[in-house]
């Protein structure tokens, strides 16, 4: 049954009067009355606990939502580790005092923990009528981004910035998604999944899936005109061999560049061109677009102010971060009329080889323009006496045929000859590795060390 519920700001979600049978999460059809009860019971317990910094790590999105709201109403600092792996959690153990989790997440030896579902351990009962509006400015959330080194970097944000971004998402797409339910291939442990698959649905009264979709076949099976898919390029690129079944109401993609071919394939399969969202853990969303052409520009979110620094990198003033300060990114851009922009790559992806500045993004784009290559990742390789470029590539069907007919040596030579149309000799990769997929992590970011390892011989 399609339900339509008035939008509520994050501060007041638990205060809203919704029908008890309103659906919060599906895959077991959990209702609003149950959600209120679970949040209130956990809140009563958390208020009795001395720990302030709570790590939140769940496979089940419903329990995650219960824990997030209960921690917020208990005035705790929420820590969101990037994944559930025991070693990754152990690396971050000094960041938190206690781990709140479900049975799918292993605990860390020597670290206090609490598992959901919660059976109730507080003597004091917390009634739903006792919920107060959240003081969003006072509530803090810490997320982690891998950065260029792969080492987790802590990013602290206030819930007021998170709430402002949710308000903007609703103003842009709320009417289009009216009555839709939300399914997802991305984790709620990161900013994109947290916003799009958990908090925005809670504020707007849209039911969300408890479990991730992992395989292309699951994505195809869940398609319906009343469902919105929250996904990433990593999954959408894997739909190339699928056959159309049903449409999605809308598809969102974030976490990395979506190839034009994957965008067009999604439109053919689901009668829906994905909305790509560009941003970062630090900034939240910066811009969005639907990729009608490879040159389709990005549209700034309406509340942003931008300028470029001397290196043509974007400077951002945003209420998602701090409305009174400017945040400097490393994203090189060209500003266009009507608050649009083109991405030109990242300043931290410029390397100097034989005194010449080489843009790794430019080399990747030139490689991807070739008929043989679907996707490319370019990185500098230190060969002791000199620095050269290596390229990890995935091949198109034409590229696979050429590889079979020509062999690696001749194909690599032909690729290098093609690149001479645009690139100086020092900017042309000297070493190539062909793979089925470019190595990425759970956030859809390329794994630098995994790329380097491909050249370890």
UniProtKB/TrEMBL annotation:
Q: Domain AMP-dependent synthetase/ligase, which positions?
A: 72-290
InterPro entries, alphabetized: AMP-bd_C_sf, AMP-dep_synth/lig_dom, ANL_N_sf
Q: Does Ligase appear among the keywords?
A: yes
Keyword Ligase assigned: yes
What terms describe the molecular function in GO for this protein? ligase activity
Keywords in UniProt for this one?
Ligase
Q: What is this protein called?
A: AMP-fatty acid ligase
Annotated source species: Photobacterium sanguinicancri
